[in-house]
Amino acid sequence: MRKLIAFNNVTLDGYFTGADGDFRWAHDDSDDPEFSAFVAENARGGGELLFGRITYELMAAYWPTEMAMKNDPVVAERMNKMPKIVFSRTLGEASWSNSRLMNGDLASEVRRIKNASGEGIAILGSGSIVAQLAPHGLIDEYQLVLNPVILGGGRTMFEGLNNRPKLKLTQSRSFNNGKIFLRYAPAS
Amino acid sequence: MRKLIAFNNVTLDGYFTGADGDFRWAHDDSDDPEFSAFVAENARGGGELLFGRITYELMAAYWPTEMAMKNDPVVAERMNKMPKIVFSRTLGEASWSNSRLMNGDLASEVRRIKNASGEGIAILGSGSIVAQLAPHGLIDEYQLVLNPVILGGGRTMFEGLNNRPKLKLTQSRSFNNGKIFLRYAPAS
What we know:
2 copies of one chain form a homodimer. By secondary structure, chain A is α/β, with parallel strands linked by helices.
């Protein structure tokens, strides 16, 4: 069974993007070599990315740009190369490199994908996807990078999730740039 | 000058109360003696509490009750005894023990209070108060207890804050119950 991780950069007020869709505050790590090494190490991992439409469109509009290649070359190259799935019933086509569009029943499709052989799968952002999958017990781990940033408004993770999953903290690691990496598993 | 701290229990999705005003998830610490000792130590400190109306009314409806005295006796006794200020232009009276109601200009009043001699002041919850004071540079420290809880909806801290204060992480301490205590100072 493939492991499904939900990964999010979040602010102190719980947002993973600003109201304007801005998520670049999360990639300001140039001041901390230890954190940069951590990100590069993470980016080296294999696997597949899973998105909802909104996060997909935000990221597809950023990572292929020259700005992204300049600001964050390791992550940008990896993001563009990795295989990506976007779940949407309204998106016409998935034009970001190495993407495929799926529009079936989300939980059934994800269960099928997890049951196939292969490397891990990571959901980035995509609050509504996380909120739909968590009640089915399909998310094996939550990974958060908590940023020392306050946005004052934006989109929260887990939007509309209403079963309040019980979690246990399995790792915390703080960096000199003020970011903290946190891992949580569903409490069994 | 008295130090002004903004203290919040928060969930992984950035809420300090649920949509229904529930904040009792934050006080489920009976399973961790180290965390209970930390809370009791915190509660021993002197000082004064500062609230906006909404958080004040939520807390005034809970801490004086027998349920609070039973579930969380150390904190309940301290909450009821400590001097409290509530800022509101609509509240008729502040009837929770040891409260006083203020309805002047928030930033001016807080500046005046800070300039007087006395012990520290802590804002609990009260997102709109925090959001109004932060741009004036009146908040000296942010203390968060990050809980391993997802609410899926509720009220976020710092609501409407739009100057994105720069912060630096000054302490992180994780507990066996999965809570993490975090301290941030405004970056100078």
